[in-house]
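Recall the central idea of this unit: under ordinary conditions, the amino acid sequence of a chain determines the structure it adopts. In this exercise we apply that idea directly, starting from the sequence alone.
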Amino acid sequence: MIRVFPKRTKWTPTDELAFIGDPGLFLPEEQPVKISCTFTWDISECERLYRAWSVYYSDVELGGPAFGDVGDEFVPGRFIKNGVVFTSRGCPKDCPWCFVQKREGQIRELPIAQGYIIQDNNLLACSMQHVSNVFDMLRTQKHSAVFMGLDAEFLTLNHVILLNSVKVDRMFFAYDHNGSTYHIEKAGEMLSNYNRDKKRCYVLVGYYPEDTVAKAEARLLKIWQLGFMPYVMFYRSDNMKSTKKTKAWQDLTRIFSRPAIMRGYCKKYFNNGHRKTKIASNN
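Accordingly, the structure predicted from this sequence is:
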């Protein structure tokens, strides 16, 4: 099966039947073609690609998360590179800024495929038996494990014991609003044996109308203080009616998406006695 993507990302498959953009000069023999669209802002481009590939192939389909695909099955290496696996779909939480439950519904456990990058939206919301089975699989992998979606609210001592039973490269949590501070603080304490490079946390900014660069920066610095590596996640809506990304927001995004810059920035802030930063001073 030919798979077509609007752009290449670090998760895009790299085999000979994975294509980026328009058909090339030398094409494979007649077979089904799947145009994969993850983000709503790529829909128009993917529709154009559908037309372009339909010139050469009779069986062309357009789909993906942007079109409400609920993810009923997961085939390793098909629409995401080998090594990355989904062992569940959906989420029990219906957060207003997130599309997961709206598209995929409640948490659903899938058959566990081989891989070391666990891409589940909310692995810890799965049954303890399923999570334990995921870790059994991870112990057979030659690579250290990467967890892309861990929810601090669901973290328990049993989960920590499982995490300590495998080699962990990185684990990603999320800090979407001030109400989740307690859960992140608790997770930081429970995982205190892991350094900041292994404990990372996405911080949602620009979603709430009253959010400002100064408030967002304070949340990012709070996450750093709790022992996590914060990663700014600037909200982008499906209809593009998001907070305008001004230069100040761009500066914040640049600093808190690049660990080398972030380390120097945070070190300077905390060594200066929590004095107001340059970004906050300009807003």
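The two ends are 51 Å apart (CA to CA).
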